[in-house]
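=== Structure Prediction Worksheet ===
Name of assembly: unnamed complex
Input type: mixed (protein and possibly other molecules)
Chain count: two
Listed entries:
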Amino acid sequence: MSTDFYREGEPVADAKAPAGPISERWEKRRFSGRLVNPANRRKLRVIVVGTGLAGASAAATLGELGYRVANYCFQDSSRRAHSIAAQGGINAAKNYRNDGDSVHRLFYDTVKGGDFRSRESNVHRLAEVSTEIIDQCVAQGVPFAREYGGLLDNRSFGGAQVSRTFYARGQTGQQLLLGAYQALQRQVAAGTVDLHTRHEMLELVIVEGKARGIVVRDLVTGEISTELADAVVLATGGYGNVYFLSTNAMGCNVTAGWRAHRKGAYFANPCYTQIHPTCIPQSGEHQSKLTLMSESLRNDGRVWVPKQKGDDRHPADIPEDERDYYLERRYPAFGNLVPRDIASRAAKVVCDEGHGVGPGGLGVYLDFAAAIERLGKKAVEAKYGNLFDMYERITGENPYERPMRIYPAVHYTMGGLWVDYDLSSNIPGLFVAGEANFSDHGANRLGASALMQGLSDGYFVLPNTISDYLADGPFDALDETHEDVVAARKAVDDRIGFFLNNDGDRTVDSFHRELGKIMWEYCGMERTDEGLRKAIGLIRGLKDEFYRRVKVTGKNEQLNQELEKAGRVADFLELGELMCIDALHRTESCGGHFRAESQTEDGEAKRDDEHFSYVAAWEFGEDAPVLHKEALEFEYVKPTQRSYK
Amino acid sequence: MKLSLRIWRQSDAQAEGKMVSYEIDEVSEDASFLEMLDVLNERLIGEGEDPVAFDHDCREGICGACSLVIDGQPHGPQAATTTCQLHMRKFKDGDSIDIEPWRAGAFPVIKDLVVDRSAFDRIIQAGGYISAPTGTAPDAHAVPIPKQDADAAFSAAACIGCGACVAACPNGSGMLFMGAKVTHLSLMPQGQPERATRVLGMVAAHDEAGFGGCTNTGECAAACPKEIGLDVIGKLNRDFRKAAIRAA
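=== Predicted Assembly ===
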């Protein structure tokens, strides 16, 4: 493609994963990485931003190890991070079911599910660590679902043919996060972790090339302060809210990651976005977010649309032979359990053809009639009761009697800050964990893998790898008068001052909604060269307008939710442009990134391994971003065209 | 639909608050309660007024951030439903609605409808955990747990820490919240070694934070969006008495 929008720089490579058999790399790395003497750990200060699964588990574990940890979250309690909303489950290669699962199979499934755009070494480690996570969580008292014999129950989950998913009714994320939250609070009581709630990171402090601290705003008093340390860990989640409507919590944002990106951290594969197939459709213009219905529902629910276009009969009145169970028809081997990207796009296809149901024809049925007949209403209620109740509260419809209406919505972002095998970004001392990094899911994440990755990074990977970096510490003493610290702080003050003094007339939300519409239309489920170019122009125009017209009420020295949102939307505007540039440059389709120009005869995503078997790591540039390619090599799982037929 | 709102406005923790009236029109019955407030706030900003501050995040009933007293009821009129999951179809055209923050001594108002619930975190810090440092765990199947215990533990663990129980209680007691955590951990074999110290520590932190005692009014369980039952308070009291006698 033309390089109007970016420049290409030097390639980048992961220098930390050891060579040799893949199943030995993690053990080798743990041995080759330097350790920090327990007596020296208390001299080392680590900042962890975020208290979701990755952040809370990392902060708690680093505290247990004896480091001095400062942990930040913008919520009023660390227990409210958005990991709490994950419903379905967490994968682990325990093979408790004796159904052929193994570390290698989980590794294989994850690489394949990611459409061969992830790093093999990282994924293998994730599969290895998965079993330890379950042990750890059970020891903490996480109340996983159990069978009558008292052992843990498992289910099969989106795209897997084995039952390796552990769950706690439909609230697995909540229970895992509370486990990590309690471990974290224990460290707060022990004095190893200073926890700062209602604080938002607004800038990264870099001194002599190393990440040495952050600038934060106290969201209650407006006080701006700096926290200095020997290393900084960002565990700040995904950026799905760039679409305005997504299943993310309202506060989820990219600011911490984007501020680091502007200071030199590479942002990898920003266009890899997961659109989740089973969400409640939008009901009107007032809509502020979309609600996910766990895809575990696809285990027992059957997805269909009326064969006749525009058929507005009550679903119960549509006879069996006038229904199109399109997933079962197109993908007989996997049926309703095809991976998320495939299920989402299939829904878009049938709706675009005019078969959609509900308001605007943007919905498909997820029908439990067969499951209720087969298992009984009680069994279905036991499995999915809370999800059914939630659906009814939102839509006013009873899913025991009438099929749910679902439609895809933005749910997860596979892209994120570039990290090596040690979870270190390209800025020394800046580590990135959980959804905020890019590393394990390639171009598409499998169900029940986000919780696994967040906890893998936080409990087991980062606490082991960060010691190799901290072994060189403590670094030179710093104080707040250092010129780089002063400059970082001033940048924050200036930005806040700008927003509060801008004599605008449009609300922050109105810009956010408009950005979201552009992103969903042109950088959503289907992307084209023409559309992406148009989107880049629209976003640039919107960004100009934002700075001219945005209106922020109130002052800094108070709880000011408009001011918080303004900074976040400003960063989303820049990220949105980069996402479109990334999507434009990647002319292949892969996983969640579907370029209409690159599809097979039957409409499936068609990769171009010859030209695109790489991670696109973007460096910030004032005029244009710079692309650094990290070549991907597949020694163990040979890339094939994914097929779920 | 058209609504008359009366909303608690308080510019900061020190300021005096008062109820302020707002009229709002063209509210969709498919909108959530918080989306209705979003619409009001868009209008207020347009008019150069300070928008109404309220806590909210996931908007799907699980994070526990949202916390409005609606017509005198924490989380409003619908049973087992957080404020964010309450939809306007539960109201009628022409209704007047009062919106206030949680009111309890241990939850001071920060601004408008936003309160400080950090006392809940301090209760957890005082023992609401199982000490299991990372890496020390045995295999997950080492200790089977009867399904009925695991299910009961889960039901107690479903607490979202929103604080509606405290807001509903005439004594401003946090015992339903605390009882839910004590019950969850006491039902698990992993929770036994610290069972006594846990409950003593949590109760002391609860009392120190200024929460009141339980007088069996039962408003807490009625207000709980996750339907945590009063039985957890019974379990809490039993554990506390046992632990206190042993400690004496």
